[in-house]
Input
Amino acid sequence: MADTVGTELEVLPEAAPWTPPTWDEVVRTHSARVYRLAYRLTGNVPDAEDLTQEVFVRVFRSLPSYTPGTLAGRLSGDEPTPAQAFDARHLDGDVQDALAALAPEYRAAVVLCDIEGLSYEEVAATLGVKLGTVRSRIHRGRAQLRVALEHRRPRTATRPVSSACASTGGSA
Output
């Protein structure tokens, strides 16, 4: 019996030409997520709405020149993960206030990294800054958030010192 592995070529049907999504499809698919990110970055509704509109104007203008495979695969549908849904219901007020108190450059870096899940390299490319700058901004932003959200930190129960140990100065 002859070995024919690798000698036959599989014939694939010719792929249909790519057609860009319609404007409605793009907006319907991504508007909620873009708005949530814009709100987290700006901290207020009017600026978030303006930023969202600007994003979609730019998308609309560049849609004819888009080629498949040039968008990051990170964008997903409108549905939040269970963790995101929990955070939105239980943490948004305090967290949003703490984020809004950050300087804009810290807020942008922290939101892109910690909320949107981008790597430091992706944050640097998105913001147009050096990797070291991203690291510094994220470190400082997180430190400020820790201080601002300290009241949410779970407290560990302290065990009262036994009077016998305290009076003798020894061990139990």
